[in-house]
Design goal:
The chain is α/β, with parallel strands linked by helices and about 325 residues long. The protein is about 25% helix and about 15% strand.
Length: about 325
């Protein structure tokens, strides 16, 4: 099978094919981020990089059996300015369409963020298939809702593995069962107060008696005591360090400092686990670049679930 991956990043599609044991003859990739290319080549030295998607001449490619890609999503994302197709990055979708129409692969897959229905409908009409919405939380500890347009036979949604955030931690405890969506900006700093205000970051805490997993003499324990903040989805920090009166209303419950607490961001390895990427896959570049490519990448086990249909077709 020959594969063309557009906006390939660190080649998450290739990881998914690998996990399924689907043989690939040639894997062509379009990517311009030199760090993502470096990581992809380190793990898959035989892949063929083609550079900028706008420069690809389909007449110079062999028969492509599978076309995949997740065109840049910033223009569509509800977290952005929602310029939709007026955003130059979102217009790269039409490069995907150009190559899809020219190459006529047997199978295709396009991934993108949840977006306004009008934009979703435009993509649906052009590709001729309805999108499948899958939340990565089914296969990992990350809430990451994405849309997948594909003609690969897909057998429903992935089974829920029941993975929670504490399962992927290298050390410490956390304040929630699932992480927020890891994005390309996760490497940026920030303080505790802004984290709780913006609800955009995941923190790991060490020290103190928090409910969940914690360490005693280097051994993880299960602590059953309920402590303010760990049972809520909305946490607040008061300037005086005190808690509100605890109530059954979640918005009234706050996180409090117990004994000596320390906090940190998720490590790169923990983010690899959230994206179901093998530990150490992104090694070889700076942590900043590793966080960026993981935020831009796919949750591999979601793609693996979709590609199961390819495996069935080949039997």
């Amino acid at each position: 099978m020959n594969v063309l991956s557009l906006f390939d990043g660190m080649s998450c599609g290739q990881i998914a094919l690998d996990k399924l044991g689907i043989p690939v003859n040639k894997y062509f990739a379009s990517e311009i981020d030199k760090y993502a290319i470096q990581v992809a080549r380190k793990n898959y030295p035989d892949m063929i990089h083609l550079g900028d998607v706008k420069e690809i001449d389909p007449s110079k490619l062999p028969k492509i059996d599978l076309l995949i890609g997740g065109s840049p999503c910033q223009g569509f994302s509800f977290a952005g300015k929602q310029l939709n197709f007026d955003d130059p990055r979102s217009q790269l979708f039409f490069e995907y369409v150009r190559l899809l129409e020219a190459l006529k692969p047997k199978y295709f897959l396009l991934e993108n963020v949840k977006m306004k229905k009008e934009s979703e409908q435009v993509i649906t009409e052009i590709l001729g298939v309805e999108p499948i919405e899958i939340n990565s939380s089914l296969v990992s500890a990350q809430n990451r809702k994405r849309l997948y347009w594909t003609n690969i036979p897909v057998d429903g949604l992935p089974d829920d593995k029941g993975t929670v955030l504490s399962d992927v931690l290298e050390d410490g405890v956390t304040d929630r069962e699932k992480s927020y969506c890891i994005d390309a900006n996760y490497y940026k700093g920030g303080n505790l107060k802004s984290y709780f205000e913006k609800h955009r970051r995941q923190l790991v805490f060490t020290g103190g008696a928090w409910r969940g997993r914690y360490t005693v003499d280097g051994v993880r324990q299960d602590h059953k005591q309920k402590v303010a903040g760990l049972t809520t989805q909305r946490l607040e920090v008061r300037e005086d360090g005190k808690t509100n009166a605890l109530t059954t209303v979640q918005k009234d419950n706050v996180a409090v400092k117990i004994n000596e607490m320390h906090w940190c961001k998720l490590t790169v390895t923990e983010c690899e686990r959230l994206q179901t990427v093998p530990d150490g896959y992104t090694c070889g570049v700076s942590n900043t670049q590793r966080y960026k490519m993981l935020g831009n990448g796919w949750t591999v086990d979601v793609i693996k679930h979709i590609f199961e249909g390819l495996k069935e077709e080949r039997q």
